[in-house]
Amino acid sequence: MYPVRCAVVAALGGLLFGFDAAVISGTTESLQRVFVDPTFAEASDSTQAFWKGFTVACALIATIIGSIAVSKPASAFGRRATMFILAILFFVSAIGCAFAWSWTSLVVFRFIGGLGIGGASVIAPMYIAEIAPAAKRGRLVAIAQLNIVLGVLLAYLSNWIIQQSGISSSGAVGTPEYIQWLDATGWRVMFGVEAIPALAYFVLLFTVPRSPRWLVSKGRTDEAKAVIAKLGTDIAGESVDQELSAIRDSLESERSAEKAPLFIKRYKPMILLAFALAAFNQLSGINAILYYAPEVFKSAGFDDSAAFLNSAGVGLANLIFTILAMTVIDKLGRKTLMLVGSLGYIISLSAVALAFYTQSSTDDAGVRAFTDTGSWVVLVGIMVFIASHAFGQGAVIWVFLAEVFPNSIRAKGQAFGSLTHWVFAAAISWTFPMIAQASGGHVFAFYAICMVGQLIWVAKVMPETKGVPLEEIEAKLGVSPE
Q: Quick one: pLDDT band at residue 168, thresholds 50, 70, 90?
């Protein structure tokens, strides 16, 4: 039970990752009115949409930096010490965004939160993998991924509850009084709520041990022995000294691997696979939906309350289908899940695009109105889209990236895949408001076309890695032995 409790505490970093990433979805319209419009008052509508996208994407830009930079403090100060730093970053970001006094200050505090997201995406699974017994490692590491999805759901639910509390006494949704409350107070509370789990994360970290692997790497053998004795050894009946010896051998192997180059001709097939998978992950538009969900639902004709509640439904669907995918990924295989997810993407995104094209109209003031049928097509389409992502790409990407590279370059290969993922995530989140401003249908049609490309790539190029030895994967890709 002790390793499980430690994994749950570490996985709170993943929960904060998901919460911080999704919480801004409930604030975008208020941020537009309070900060973006006044700051760029003389700019054109397209330029304002550009800076609105940047306001959302700045955290993702920081995520790229955080995911790369976190390895140094993790190595120098330890995994647990680094998680303390991440908890502080999340807390400062939450409080700072809640009390932001200008657009610049908001961007700075969102950037700080993004550093936390990037660091948590690396450190949480790393720490869990290092403290978990081998027999439980896969399930315990999966807690971190599951907590990211749970964090997204909690952010949507929190936003909806806060939004409900701001409805004016008349009971009418969307009244000037409500808008005034939301702009003055509501969005600040939405950001500030994150300080609570960040503080809990910081306090609970005092109850978990340092990574025994890191302790061995620093020559603190006696401390490592005490931690291993409490956590348990990888193999039943194995002594603590045998575990220490295995850790030393592993560290020595990794030091040799650090010298192995990644970008050489031999590894080109694996690099291209990692790049394509990570790029397609974001070209589905998943981050645009997660970050702008309430706006998408409002543009489809739902009132404020329904838009926030529908967003919570998106988070719930994401959680349910992530759990479902985790139970079948080793039975059905990675490629099967990707094929099912790709088809779901294409059908759902095409339906949403068609609804914008055929079931809506825009008046002279630029206000879009949907038919009842169109509104429901958008709602169902977005839910199917989220389910398709959670069951396909969302479940497969990190597993596949860990399997497709050989031991000697696995860490570098995963880092490359992660970097590609975050770069595309920032680009999609940044550009969504600009493309959607011209036509909601265009942006969803673009994502649907990209997913046709993914379907072809999965069917023709992507290898199945379920239960396949690493050497056989290399042979499939035409990689000759060293």
A: very low
CA 441 to chain CA centroid, Å, is 25
**Confidence at 351, pLDDT banded by 50, 70, 90:** very high
* CA diameter of the chain: 77
Evaluate whether 302 touches 433 at the Cβ level (below 8 Å).
Answer: no
Distance CA 259, CA 256 (A): 6
Q: Which two tokens stand for residue 51?
A: 């800076």
Whether 207 and 176 have beta carbons less than 8 Å apart is answered as no
Reported as a single tens digit per residue, the pLDDT across 88-103 is 999 999 999 999 999 9
Query: Helix, strand, or coil here: 211?
Result: coil
Q: Give the three-class secondary structure for 267.
A: helix
> Which residue shows structure tokens 């206000």?
367
The pLDDT confidence band at residue 121, using thresholds 50, 70 and 90, is confident
Helix axes 410-438, 393-404, angle to 10 degrees: 150
Short-list 388, 403, 374, CA closest to 462: 403
Q: Does the model's pTM come out above 0.85?
A: no
* CA–CA–CA angle 138, 140, 146 (5° rounding): 100
pLDDT digits (tens, 9 = 90+) for 417-471: 888 988 998 889 888 888 777 666 889 999 999 999 999 999 999 988 777 665 5
Quote the tokens at residue 395.
């479940």
Enumerate domains of the chain plus CATH numbers: 1-208 (1.20.1250.20), 265-482 (1.20.1250.20)
Question: Do the beta carbons of residue 66 and residue 117 sit within 8 Å?
Answer: yes
Q: How far apart are CA 60 and CA 83, in angstroms?
A: 19
Neighbouring CB atoms inside 10 A of 21's CB total: 25
275-to-415, 416, 420 alpha-carbon distances in Å: 11, 8, 6
Crossing angle between the packed helical segments 286-299 and 440-460, to the nearest 10 degrees: 150
In DSSP terms, 362 is beta-bridged to 368
pLDDT score for 292: 87
> How far, in whole angstroms, is CA 137 from its chain's centroid?
21
CA nearest to 295, candidates 5, 11, 30: 30
Indicate left, alpha or beta for 331 from its phi (over 0: left) and psi (-120 to 50: alpha): alpha
**pLDDT band for position 171 (50/70/90)?**
very low
3-state secondary structure of 236: coil
DSSP 8-state code for residue 174? T
The DSSP line for 342-406 is HHHHHHHHHHHHHHHHHSEEE-TT--EEE-HHHHHHHHHHHHHHHHHHHHTHHHHHHHHHHHHS-
How far CA 476 is from CA of 57, 66, 116, 397, 461, in Å, comes to 38, 34, 38, 19, 11
**Quick one: pLDDT band at residue 144, thresholds 50, 70, 90?**
confident
